[in-house]
Amino acid sequence: MGYVAVKGGTRAIEESIKRLKFERVKKGTVLDVHKIETGMRGLIDQVMSESSLFSEILAAIAIKQAEGNPEEAVFLLRAYRSTLSRKHYSRTISSEDMLTERRISASFKDIPGGQILGATTDYTHRLLDFGLMMESEEEALQWLEGFEEENGQQENVTDLAKLPKVLDYLRKEGLMPECSDDDREPDDVTKKSLEFPSTRSQRLQILTRGQTGALTSLAYAVIRGYGALHPTVGELRVGSLPVCIDNPFNQYNDEDDSYYIGEIKATETEMLIPVTVEKERGKKEIKFEIGYGICLGQNETKAIAMGILDHALQTGNKEYPTGDEEFVLYHIDSVESTGFISHLKMPHYVTFQSKLDSVRKTKKQEAESKEESSLCK
Amino acid sequence: MQIDYNYAFFDEGSKREIRRATLKAIAIPGYQVPFASREMPIGRGWGTGGLQLTLSLVGKDDVVKVIDQGSDESVNAVNIKKLIEKTTGISTTDETSEATIIQSRHRIPEVPLKDGQIMVLQVPLPEPLRFYEPSEFETKKLHAEKEYSGAWLMLFEQIMKYGNLATDADHPVMVDDRYVMAPSPIPRFDNSKMNYSEALILLGAGREKKIYAVPPYTKVVSLAFDDYPFEVESFEDNHCKQCGAAGVFMDEIYDDETETTYFQCNDTSYCVARLNHQTV
Which of residues 169-198 of A touch B (CB under 8 A)? Predict the structure, then answer.
C-alpha cells in the first residue's frame, strides 16, 4: 500500500526532517557560516546570482542549510526574497562607474586602460593541490602579509574606477554604429509575469537570474551549431558597482541629494557578434552586433552565455530553439525547472487511476472489435 | 539573526496583488489571469499556486482543509498544512463541511461543497491548449478569438486512434460558454462537481504564474461529442472495502498477502466519517 493511503504522513515528515539533520551533522562537526562566506566565493556568487538577491551572509546560511546543494540554496533564498517588500529603487547604475578588479578584451590586445587579468582560474593548471589538505590559518595569514607588502610597493597608475569602455573605442573609430540609450522604465518580471513578445528588459532579467548551467548549455548550443556564430568577448569586467537611492523626502530626485547605500559585485560582458548584412545589389557587409550579459558576483561563464543568448533572442531566429524566446525564457529558471521536475516524486495515484481507466476502456474496445471481426469470418 | 515572517508568510502588498488577480479571474470565468507568482518555501510544482491563493485569502477566522490526491494525511498535504498553521496560527480540519477554504491537489471532495466555501485547486499546467500549441503567445490569441478547433480535434483524434475519448484526468471543460479551461488534473469523475458549484472554485498555477476561477453557479461542461459522450472513470460494481461506499472515486489497491485487488474510497476523510457514523 502506498504512502498516501496510510495515515501518519505527519510523523513520516517529522522523522524525515530529523534524518536530514542527522545527515548534515552526523560526523560531529558543524560548518561555520563565516567560513562558508569567506571560503566559498564561487558558490556564494552563483547562488546570489541565481537567487537575484545580493547578500553574502544570507547566501552562506542558505548554502549551509542546503549542505552545499546550489539548487536547494537558491530555492531557500528565493523563498526568503518573496517575503521582502520593495522599499526603494536604486538610481540607474552606470557600469562605467565600476571599480574594476578584472577586465579583459578578447578583441584587442591594446585597449585603453589596459588589460587587467585580476583573479581568475583561467591560467591555473587544474592539478589537484594536495597541499590544501594541510593548509593552516597561520600559513594563510603569513602569506597574506607578504602579499600585501608586495602589493604596497607597486604604484598604480590607472584609475580603476574610471576605465573607458572598449566598445566606446570601437564606436569612436567608426567600427561600430552608435546606439541610442533606451531610457524607458524597465519592466519588472518579479512584479508582473512575462508576456510575449517580451521586452528586452524582461529578457535580461530572466537571463541574469537563470540557472548557470542552463544558460551555459543553451549558449553553447548557439555557438556550436544552432546559429553557428563565433562571438568575441568585446569586454568582460568584474568589479563593484556603487548603488545609490534617491532621498525619499525629496521629490526632485537630484543626484546630489541621493544616498550611497553600498556596492554590489558584478560581472559584465559585452559580446561582439559578427552578422552579415545585405546591402544594395546583393552586396554583403559584415557588421558587429552586441550581446549583453551582466550578473551578480563573479560568474564569467554565465555572463558570457547571457550575452550570447541576449543576442540570439534579440535576433529571434525561430529556426533554432535558442532563438525562440518562450523556449529559452520559460525553461532556464532554477526554482521553476527543479521544482517541476522534482514534483514528479509526489504521489499521482488519482491521475494514474484515471489513466488506467482510459487504457482499460481502450483495451476492452479493442478486444470487442477483434471478437466481432472473428465472428464475421 | 532571527527573522519573523509576516502573517500568512507574504507581505500585505503581495497578498493584495494576488487578490486583485483573483478578483479579475472571478469576473472573467475560466480566463487565465497572469500574476506575479512568488517563490514559495515549498517546491515550485508542489502546489505553490494553490498555496499563494490560500495565503492571500486566509483570515484569522478561517478553517483550512488541505488534501493531496484525496488524502488529508498525504505527506504533501501535511506539509502545506503545516506551513499554513505555522505562518497564520489558524486551525485546520479534515472535515470538508467545516472548512472555509479547501486547498486540494487533483480532487474535489465527495461531500458536496456549500455556498460560502472556497475550493482552491493546485494546477500544474493551466493551459488546456498546450498539448497542440507550445507557444503561450499563440494560445493567448486562440483563447481571445475563441478558436477552439484544436481542442475538438484533439478529442476527435483520440476517437480515431483509440475508438473513444481517451483523456484521463484534466479533461478540458467549457466555462460559461466562453473559455475552454483545464480543470486541473482532477479525475473526470470530479468534472461535474464544478458545474453550477455552490462554492467558489479558484485555480492557481504557481510555476506558470496564472490564476483562474469558476465563480459559484457557473455552467461548466466537459468537452465531448453527441455520439461520443463524456464518460467518467468506472469502478463498476465495486464497493469501498472499508466503508462500503459505492459511486465514489476509488483507489485500486493490491494486497500482496491475498494477491487480490480491492477498492477503497480515495477521499479519506469521507471514508473515515462514514466509518465513524457506522460505529455510532
Answer: 190-197
Cα B219 to Cα B236: distance, rounded to the nearest angstrom: 28
* A147 is a domain residue: no
Mark whether A282 and A191 lie in a shared domain: yes
- The residue from B70, B240, B244, B247 that is catalytic is B240
Q: List CB contacts (< 8 A) between B241 and chain A.
A: none
- The answer on A265 and A316 residing in a single domain is yes
DSSP A99: E
Nearest Cα to A342, choosing from B47, B72, B67?
Answer: B47
Chain B residues lying within 8 Å of A356, measured CB to CB: 252
Burial annotation B173-195 (CB, 10 A radius, 16+ → b, else e):
bbbbeebbbbbbbbbbbbbbbbe
Task: Give the closest residue to B122 by CA, choosing from B183, B35, B32.
Answer: B183
Is A144 among the domain residues?
no
Per the CB < 8 Å rule, is A357 touching B48? Answer: no
Same domain, A175 and A305: yes
User: A105 and A75, same structural domain?
Assistant: no
Residue B16 sits at φ, ψ, to 5 deg, of -60, -40
* Residue B204 annotated in active site: no
Name the one residue in this structure whose C-alpha cell is 551582466: A294
Chain A residues within 8 A of B45 when measuring between CB atoms: 336, 339-343
Helices (H), chain B: 12-27, 48-57, 75-88, 136-144, 149-162, 188-191, 268-279
pLDDT in tens, A140-164: 999 999 999 988 777 666 788 888 8
- Cβ–Cβ < 8 Å for A365, B163: yes
To which H or E segment does residue A204 belong? helix A200-208
Host domain of residue A221: 95-117+156-338
- Residues B252-278 have pLDDT tens digits of 988 888 888 899 999 999 999 999 887
In 3D space, the residue among B187, B203, B200, B171 whose CA is nearest the CA of residue B248 turns out to be: B187
- pLDDT tens profile B233-252: 988 889 999 999 999 999 99
Query: At A107, which amino acid appears?
Result: S
> Residue A230 and residue B9: Cα distance in Å, rounded?
47
Domain total of chain A: 2
A74 shares its domain with A109:
no
Considering the domain architecture, whether residues A32 and A107 belong to the same structural domain is answered as no
CA distance A373 to chain B (A): 15
| Catalytic residue list contains B243 | yes
Are residues A232 and A311 located together in one domain of the fold?
A: yes
Residue of higher predicted confidence among B261 and A269: A269
> In terms of pTM, does the model score above 0.95?
no
Q: Is A130 part of any domain?
A: no
Of A5, A193, A342, Cβ closest to residue B43: A342
Residues of A with Cβ-Cβ distance to B137 under 8 angstroms: 196-197, 326
ipTM over cut 0.85: no
- On whether residue A226 sits in a domain, the answer given is yes
